[in-house]
Write a structure and sequence with these properties.
CATH class: Alpha Beta
Largest sheet: 7 strands, parallel
Bound molecules: NADP nicotinamide-adenine-dinucleotide phosphate
CATH superfamily: NAD(P)-binding Rossmann-like Domain
Distance between the termini: 51 Å
Number of helices: 6
Shape: globular
Number of strands: 9
Oligomer: single chain
Low-confidence stretches: none
Structural class: alpha/beta
Mean pLDDT: 97
Strand content: 15-25%
Order of helices and strands: EHEHEHEHEHEEEHE
Strand order of the largest sheet: 3-2-1-4-5-6-9
Length: 237
């Protein structure tokens, strides 16, 4: 009997959208590799997932650090082929350009853009060899539309869109799907240190957004939802 389940790697799985996607994919029968810096939170989620009858593997990852990504790759060797990568780890630093420090800019690029590149680079070779796989980029509405006081975040996400579009064209011939997801505001810890003039109560629910993304991941083999804009029915703030 073949009990090989599909395996999904989710970065930034400790909170918010990453956590919601990890729980939903587990309920759909995926084994999951949960990666972020906060190992305790990942272990709690892993415990929750064990109740669904799926396996999950927490791993302490810092996407800024190539060695950490390399360690994650080695860690997954005993687990098996990673069918789905979800590049979700990210954060937003919102301020006027005159207040934005160089280290803020570097951090935005390092986590949101370079981190997704590193994960993809380390994991796509196996997909190319197997001629199958799905790579998801959790981008943002800010990856297609510019907002003020967001220059570093917007730049990192526009860059991520360019990366995903280029990669999609390159990896088609290997039967690899590249999905770029562009949500509007979601009620998650993302907003905890952000001064916003709109309420978390009016934002989208992370479980609802995760549901839509999992639906895209589960699309039939010969179909790919290449770019997905997910917005409140009421529209942008
Ligand atoms: N919330 C929104 O309104 C919204 C809208 C559009 C797009 N997005 C995007 O959605 C994604 C998820 O955000 P969220 O809203 O779910 O926010 P969140 O709850 O703050 O989650 C961010 C995740 O990223 C992880 N992370 C941050 N830095 C990391 C690093 N250096 N290495 C590894 N993991 C790191 C965090 O885990 P640790 O702290 O444990 O490392 C956390 O799990 C982000 O890419 C964000 O840009 C969010």
């Amino acid at each position: 009997m073949n009990d090989k389940k599909k395996i999904a790697l989710i970065t930034g799985a400790s909170t918010g959208l990453g956590k919601s996607m990890a729980l939903k994919l587990s309920k759909k029968g995926f084994d999951t590799i949960l990666a972020s810096r906060n190992f305790n939170k990942l272990e709690e989620i892993s415990h929750q997932i064990s109740g669904f009858g799926s396996r999950s593997y927490p791993f302490m990852l810092d996407v800024r650090n190539e060695q950490s990504v390399n360690d994650l790759k080695n860690f997954t060797k005993d687990i098996g082929f990673v069918d789905v990568i979800i590049n979700n780890a990210g954060f937003g630093k919102f301020d006027e350009i005159r207040n934005l420090e160089v280290k803020d800019w570097d951090e935005q690029m390092s986590v949101n853009l370079r981190g997704s590149f590193l994960i993809t680079k380390y994991f796509c070779n196996d997909m190319i060899n197997q001629k199958i796989g799905t790579i998801v980029f959790i981008n943002s509405v800010a990856g297609k539309k510019a907002y003020p006081y967001s220059s570093a975040y917007v730049t990192s996400k526009f860059g991520l869109l360019g990366f995903s579009r280029s990669l999609r064209e390159e990896l088609r011939e290997y039967n690899i799907k590249v999905i770029s997801v562009h949500p509007g505001a979601i009620s998650t810890p993302f907003w905890e240190n952000v001064e916003a003039d709109f309420s978390k109560d009016d934002m989208m629910d992370s479980d609802n957004v995760a549901e839509t993304i999992v639906h895209a991941v589960l699309a039939p083999d010969n179909v790919v939802l290449e770019e997905i804009d997910i917005q409140r029915t009421l529209g942008d703030f």
